Amino acid sequence: MKLGLMGFGGVLPLAHRMIVEQQKWLDESQFTNLLGICQLLPGGNIINMSVAIGMQFQGIKGAISSVLGLIFAPTVIVLMIYQVYEHFQYLTVVRHLIQGLAAAAAGLLFATGFKMLRPILKSKLTLLTITLTFIFMLLFKPPLALTLLILLTINFLILGVKKS
User: Which residues span the membrane (predicted)?
Assistant: First the structure.
């Protein structure tokens, strides 16, 4: 529930800090691998991750508890904030506040992405995959699943050729 309450504007950086650095439920590599799997699944990455971690520790009850703990409090808060926002959304100061929050969220995501890069930057292939993913997403804006499928296939082919 703590993560759900603190995670407005960017749950992933906070989840990383809590799961890897504070609670040590997963190490950097496990977190990155699980996030990759969660991105392939429909739904929010962090919700998928909470299901997987809850399941790992407490089975079905853990999965259900972790999702409810993650979404209940923020849902109530968002409903209340929306009521206020609806009345003040046209004010310049409110628009500037929202822009500032969006910039801060982008910064948090960038910092978390950098932290996640450190343990996996062990080969030129990994760096190539990261670069190709970035360029492919930026230029062509394909669905994420398609991008991952294409790049995983390329990686598999390269690694398959390398091992032969």
Answer: 33-55, 67-85, 97-114, 121-138, 144-161
pLDDT of residue 5: 54
CA angle 85, 87, 92 (to 5 degrees): 75
What distance in Å separates the CA atoms of residue 152 and residue 12, rounded to the nearest whole number?
A: 23
What ranges do the domains of the chain cover?
1-86, 89-119, 123-163
CA-to-CA separations, 111 to 91, 108, 117, 161, 164, in angstroms, rounded: 31, 5, 10, 34, 37
Report whether 100 contacts 114 (CB < 8 A): no
| Whole-prediction pTM | 0.57
- Residues in contact with 160: Cβ distance below 8 Å, sequence separation at least 6, in sequence order: none
**For 108-135, what is each residue's pLDDT tens digit?**
888 888 888 887 788 888 888 888 888 9
pLDDT digits (tens, 9 = 90+) for 29-76: 899 889 988 888 888 888 999 999 999 999 999 999 999 988 898 889
DSSP 17: I
